[in-house]
Write a structure and sequence with these properties.
It is a single chain. The protein has 285 residues and is an alpha+beta fold. It has two domains: 56 residues, Roll (SH3 type barrels); 204 residues, Fumarylacetoacetate hydrolase, domain 2 (Alpha-Beta Complex), CATH 3.90.850.10. 13% of the residues lie in helices and 30% in strands. It is built from six helices and 19 strands. 47% of the residues are buried. The structure holds manganese (II) ion. Manganese (II) ion binds next to loops.
Length: 285
Amino acid sequence: MRLVSYDDGRVGCLDENQVIPLPAATMRDAIAAWDSGALTAPGRGDAVPLADVRLRVPVADPSKIIAAPVNYRDHQAEMNSDAQVGALGFFLKAPSSLLDPGGTIQLPYHDRRFDQEGELALVIGRTARRVSEDDALAYVFGYTGLLDITMRGGEDRSTRKSFDTFTPMGPVLVTADEFGDPGQVDLRCWVAGDLRQKASTRDLIWGVARLVSYASSVTTLYPGDVITTGTPAGVGPIAAGDTIRLELSGLGLDLTAEVAAGEAVASPTSGHGRGPVPPPPPERH
Ligand code: MN
C-alpha cells in the first residue's frame, strides 16, 4: 500500500490521484494493524482527490530519528572524510525537526552554510531489540523520502541537523511488501531546478538490513521510529527562495520543501570553518 498522512493526521491509501481513507485513524494505528496482520486495503467508497488534501509528515511523533553518517563512498570522498558509517555508528536527529511535505525550511543563521541531503528513510513497524541482519527487514513497516538538512561546521551532528524544520519527510510511506528491495532504489535530488544528486541505494556502504540490525543492537527500536540511510554525493548550499525536490523510485510522489531565512540571526556557536570540509558550491543555472 502507498500510504499518506493528511489533514489532521488521518491516514489514507493513495490510488493514483485519489486518497482512500483507512479504517485506522492514524499512521500509528495503521502500523499496529500491520503488526497484528490486520492492515488491509480499503474499499474505494470515500475517496477524496489528492489535490483536495493537505499532505502531512507520515509519522509526526517518532520516539527517535536515527541517521547514518557517511554511508556512500562518493559522499565520503566529497566531504574529505576519513571515516564512514562502519567507524562512526549513527547519530540522532530531534523528532521535533520533522516538516510536512511541501513545508518551508527556516534557515536559523545568516552566517553559516546549510546543505540539502536527499535520503531514503524507513519506518519501523514492530519493536526491535538486537535483531539479526537476516531478520531485520521483517521489522520495517515501510519506506519514504527524507531530507536531512544540515548545517556545515564543527558542532555535533545532532546539533547541526536538529533545527526545527530540518527534516522534511514523506509524502508517501510505501509498505515494505509493496516497495520491494530497498537496495535497488534510484534517488535524484534537485535544488532550484538543478539536479544535484543522482544515485542508487545499491551503493550504500551499510544497507537497510545492516542499519536496522546495528541500530537495534544499541537502542530498542519502537514502531514509528525512523531510520534514514544517508546521502550520496552532490550536497551543496541551499538559500532562501530555493525549492528542493527529492525523487525516489517506488514512491510515486516527490518530496518538496521551500527554503526561507526571514528570521535568521548570527550563529551563537563558533563551528564555522571546523569539521568535515564540504565540496565547493555547485554552479547554479
Ligand atoms: Mn544525512
